[in-house]
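Mods, move this if it's the wrong board.
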Amino acid sequence: MAGRPRLPIEVAKITGAVAKNAGRFKDRAAPQVKSLGLAPKRFSGAQREMWDEFNADFPWLGRSDRGIVSLAVLLQWQIEMAGEEATPPMIAQMRLLLSSMGGTPVDRSKVKAPDEEDEDPAEKFFN
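Not the wrong board. Structure tokens:
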């Protein structure tokens, strides 16, 4: 493997790397991220509620993040079912999953959440 992995353009914008090295990022494309979507059908009602909570709490997650959100839902469900019997490794793994999704204070500072959409003034005239 040669060198460091490429820095995604969105991360470069957030960290200021684009401003510092504009030429390096000039021709990079930012892939469109589709919505996380509905919970998988295999989930129970309680697990679907957890999915919806993760979807609401982490609006920057997209369709390509479904795998990690599924893991987070399943592990969170196991922790809740175990109650006081939840093991330290379960809790540590949940913390890692939350970190991977940008759900801890330090990691959240690295994520640019989508802004609330402003109301389009032309909307009232065209619709």
